[in-house]
Amino acid sequence: MTGIATVFVLTLFAAMLPGPDFAVVSRNALVSGRRAGVLTAVGIAAGLLVHAGYAIAGIGVAVSQSILLFNILKWVGAAYLIFLGLSMIHSASAGQGTLVDEGADLAPMGPWQALRWGFFTNATNVKATFFTLSIFTQVATPETPLSLKLAFGATTSITCFLWFSAVALFLSRPSVRRAYLSLKVWMERIFGALIAGFGVTLAFARQPG
Description:
The protein is an all-alpha fold. It has one domain. The protein has ten helices and no strands. The chain has helices spanning 2-16, 20-32, 34-57, 59-65, 67-91, 111-123, 126-139, 146-171, 174-181, 184-203. This is Amino acid transporter. The chain crosses the membrane at residues 39-63, 75-93, 150-171, 183-205.
């Protein structure tokens, strides 16, 4: 239980830091409502399972030691974030009307699109791979049972889902979204710039070690 508690605390602190995951959940909850925000959180949680799988299978170590693998993951992730951010900036337009209930959408987003945004934002982030790997090296050893390693991976995923779902539920409140509507164009551009900026930062990330 001590190991699981450690994983929970470290993951929660990391999730609370500003990053691309926080940006996409916030944007989707504000623009498309509660369901889109929560489904984006589900996608992020699924992406973390990918990183946990890397750590358990030893792929994370291989990536950390291979310049080629590291750069492939880094550039794929950077390209996705930059494309997503620039697309948001390009499509930003002034919202009309007033939100009358929490289900009203400024820009309706299908469930698969919300899941896809969350999943690929997290799964293609090589920094998340190394964060997960760093957690596993602190709580697991070669002798750690596979079942416990799987529990560690599930803990990282569930923790992020709970945190980002809470963010989505708060930001999808009608009063919050109504305030967002008055600044929609500029906020959409800001979110786009932030996400693209995270992509640029990722592109310049250096291999650990």
